[in-house]
Design brief:
heterodimer, A: 399 residues, mainly alpha, B: alpha/beta, Rossmann fold, seven-stranded mixed sheet, globular
């Protein structure tokens, strides 16, 4: 360790004021503080000791919570591929295939995102922040498995620059960074990120007869348009291949979709980690699922088509709701920041997701827009919660 | 009407180095000092003595030209050995080399049954005990020209390694009661004495007469007087309340009964880096050298006047602050740690449970150094401050209002109700490592002076 410290010390003069790379001091510091927790001490007045938790540890906790979703996603990409081309494959084959598809996306997301971030750190001379540790992983997990890498790169740059850095960097953004990346792709390249073909990576092979690459949400929407009960349509989808959209399959995540979003179970494992460690707000997560379920029930009551009549609990396992609620909605910077506000924010995300899914044919997946919309409204929710607090204080004075 | 308040929010910091309830065998202090920087709200301090002068205990040393009735007096008789100034001639310390035998300035006993409020005020102000009275809002030395709506006394300290008042104030019962009797005359409202509802209350407090006794229980900061005021009779815009420590009450009592400024106090000498911990009998403003030197486990330490949350770093030759009854010595933490942000540990104290932080499983005592464990960042994590501030206040929004220098917001969000010590735990738990106590003071100064 001493040798490493000495190495850092030996190159330090180059980065200090007057050194040849003084502009890059922030990068030097950023790297050193990753290897070694800094030797900073508390000031002479005020708290003389500080908690052992810092933002790096908080962020790495979130990354860790996403690992189950990532691993499952890798496996599922392989699973879906071999299913579509009608070949039988071993666990290892699937995992390897998934790894080959997913790893480049993950690498591009991190490499391009961090590079963009570093440029801003140097230009604006602010410290390298930890936020992208999470965003980099999230961006990869919300990509379809066969998205072109240049699109991943472009979306990442857009998200980091427009989603975050223009507002002043980590902690200042209004929109969730990863959702911004996803929304960018959705609206910039709609042909490539929607439809039935992007969710399964066929490679140079052809799909077997009877295979449909549609997502559960697509199937549900089409079934509704044709007037067949959604649950039946889901159950018969790819049934011949043994990969129907049963509730259990969707809960486990053996369905086509973005890399990390398919498995509700993995999202729930992530949720347990996030809630237990206190990193994410359980109010947002419970609110999100609760809001979606309640809205699903309300749709049942008011049902005028088959989609509305779909059992409410199906909404919780379809599409990216679970992943979005657990990992995207809980981003503390873009979410509501008051405790009451978190309930309202979470519930409305669930409600909006179901509303968008069921009523808007253009956007089969509602969670992305629901989260972004509520990101925008979070400050307004907080405004009223804060106002209520002020009013309580004011009323106390006049009593 | 006395109240029982049970608080849930907060965090008890269980540090190693507690003072056993006994007097430690440590040499007596030789020099004493008054530090004008201890007194918040002093605007233009004027020194009344020169180096080489001899003073008695209770002789005025300085006063504030902006509030010239209030005298800041010598804790001990002896010779003024140094008037230490810093940059721009800022007054830092006035040091006194103590006589072997203390001689007292006679301020005259006060007959509480006949004295009127204004005379009482002027006697307390001239006698040197007035600075114990702190005004809320703002947490500055109270102005004798004003009358508070109530006076609040917290009779227990929940800070880490805090002294036990039942031990430090033993034998002072009659002075404490005399002090309370004087305080009752200073307000038209009530005098609230807030005791620890989770323990048996020392007789000095439970037998107090003429005051309202309230019970508070819960983790730190349940012992903070600001938190208590919030639950008893909160400070609104235009309100004025005073607070005082139990030691301050005793010192007022001694002035009333004996007519002298008697600064003798029992101080807790605590911290993981001391060989001997315990209590010492000394005077306010004592040099800590004789308590600390030769009593250290290790070489690289930080000596703190006060506790680890709100105290102030002093040198090995430093002096105890006017308001402090505690010295804490902890390790200095200026070393890098390989992957320190990632390593799992149950020994690193944390309020959080983020990955690898297992201190919540460790019910033992913690040895904590002064490392910040991370660099300053914008606010990212939300909902944490709320868990350690048992008040109906939205701390993050208040902090942001102060950063933005938005006066209306600061007022409306409750800056009148808090001072530094109330956000000390917020500062401790903040993963973004912001200097929140300093921030709160800067906000208060904006409200006060502009």
């Amino acid at each position: 360790m001493k040798a490493l410290q000495n190495l850092f010390d030996s190159i330090k003069p180059n980065f200090e004021k007057g050194g040849k790379w003084e502009k890059f001091y922030t990068l030097y510091e950023g790297h050193r503080t990753i290897v070694f927790a800094p030797d900073l001490v508390t000031k002479s007045k005020g708290a003389q000791i500080k908690d052992a938790a810092d933002l790096k540890r908080v962020m790495i906790t979130v990354v860790l919570a996403m690992i189950p979703a990532l691993l499952f996603g890798i496996l599922n990409v392989g699973e879906q591929h071999f299913l579509a081309v009608g070949e039988s494959a071993t666990f290892l084959d699937k995992a390897l295939f998934g790894l080959i598809s997913v790893l480049p996306i993950l690498i591009v997301s991190y490499a391009i995102g961090l590079a963009t971030e570093f440029v801003f750190c140097v230009v604006r001379n602010h410290p390298v922040s930890e936020g992208f540790l999470v965003s980099g992983m999230l961006i990869a997990l919300v990509m379809p498995p066969h998205v072109p890498l240049w699109q991943v790169a472009l979306a990442t740059i857009f998200a980091v620059v427009i989603g975050k850095e223009v507002f002043g960097g980590t902690g200042m953004n209004i929109l969730n960074v990863a959702m911004t990346a996803r929304a960018f792709l959705y609206f910039a390249y709609p042909a490539q990120i929607s439809g039935d073909q992007v969710w399964t990576w066929l490679g140079d092979k052809a799909a077997v007869d009877g295979f449909s690459g549609a997502t559960a949400l697509g199937v549900a929407y089409n079934a509704s348009a044709e007037g067949t009960p959604v649950v039946d349509a889901l159950a018969s989808h790819n049934a011949g291949l043994g990969a129907d959209f049963s509730f259990m399959n969707m809960f486990m995540g053996w369905i086509p979709g973005s890399i990390g979003e398919t498995s509700t179970l993995m999202a729930l494992i992530g949720a347990v980690i996030l809630v237990y460690t206190g990193v994410a707000s359980w109010k947002i997560i419970v609110g999100g699922f609760g809001g979606a379920y309640a809205m699903g029930m309300l749709m049942n009551v008011l049902a005028v088509n088959e989609y509305m009549a779909m059992p409410a609990h199906y909404h919780l396992v379809m599409g990216g709701l679970a992943f979005g609620v657990v990992f995207m909605a809980t981003d503390p910077v873009s979410a509501a920041q008051t405790e009451t506000g978190k309930w309202i924010y979470g519930i409305l995300i669930g409600v909006m997701t179901v509303v968008i899914r069921v009523t808007n044919p253009a956007y089969p997946e509602g969670i992305m827009l629901a989260v972004l919309l509520m990101n925008v409204f979070a400050p307004l929710i907080d405004y009223y919660v804060v106002k209520a607090n002020k009013t309580r204080r004011l009323q106390r004075a006049t009593v | 009407m006395s109240k029982i308040v049970k608080l849930k929010k907060g965090f008890d910091i269980n540090l190693a180095g507690k003072a056993a309830q006994e007097f430690a065998d440590l040499a007596a202090a030789q020099t004493f000092a008054i530090k004008p920087t201890d007194f918040l709200g002093i605007q233009r301090p004027k020194v009344l003595v020169n180096e080489g002068d001899t003073v008695k205990a209770g002789t005025p040393i300085l006063f504030d030209k902006a509030m010239d009735q209030v005298m800041y007096v010598a804790p001990v008789s002896g010779e003024i050995v140094e008037v230490k100034r810093g940059e721009k001639r800022k007054l830092l310390e006035i040091r006194i080399l103590a006589d072997k035998e203390i001689s007292y300035e006679d301020h005259g006993k006060i007959n509480l049954s006949s004295v009127d409020r204004d005379t009482l005020k002027s006697k307390l102000a001239a006698g040197g005990v007035w600075p114990h009275l702190i005004q809320r809002p703002y947490g500055v030395v109270a102005n004798p020209a004003e009358t508070p709506k109530a006076i609040f006394i917290s009779a227990f300290d929940t800070n880490p390694l805090a002294p036990d008042y039942g031990f430090t104030l033993q034998g002072e019962e009659s002075y404490f009661q005399a002090g309370l009797d004087a305080l009752v005359k200073l307000t038209d409202g009530k005098v609230h004495l807030n005791v620890d509802g989770s323990k048996s209350v020392p007789g000095i407090f439970s037998n107090a007469k003429g005051v309202v006794i309230n019970k508070f229980s819960g983790p730190h900061p349940a012992g903070n007087v600001g938190v208590q005021i919030h639950h008893l009779d909160p400070i609104n815009k235009g309100d004025l309340a005073w607070t005082i420590s139990p030691f301050g009450v005793v010192q007022i009592g001694k002035l009333v009964v004996n007519g002298v400024f008697d600064a003798s106090k029992v101080v807790a000498v605590t911290g993981s880096e001391l060989t001997k911990t315990g209590y010492v009998k000394t005077l306010g403003g004592a040099s800590v050298t004789s308590f600390v030197k030769g009593n250290l486990n290790s070489g690289h330490v930080r000596v703190i006047s006060g506790n680890v949350l709100t105290g102030e770093k002093i040198s090995l030759e430093g002096y105890l602050g006017f308001y402090h009854s505690q010295i804490t010595v902890i390790p200095e933490g200026d070393q890098e740690e390989f992957l320190g942000w990632l390593k799992p540990s149950a020994k690193k104290l944390s309020f959080h449970k983020a990955i690898g932080l297992f201190s919540f499983l460790n019910k033992g005592e913690f040895k904590v150094d002064t490392n910040t464990h991370g660099e300053e960042r914008p606010f990212v994590v939300t909902g944490v401050f709320e868990k350690v501030l048992p008040m109906d206040i939205l701390p993050t929004y208040l902090f942001k209002a102060i950063i933005a220098e938005d006066f209306d917001e600061m007022e409306e969000l409750g800056l009148y109700e808090i001072i530094e010590e109330d956000v000390a735990l917020c500062e401790f738990v903040d993963p973004s490592k912001n200097e929140l106590q300093e921030l709160v003071r800067s906000g208060i100064e904006l409200l006060m002076y502009s």
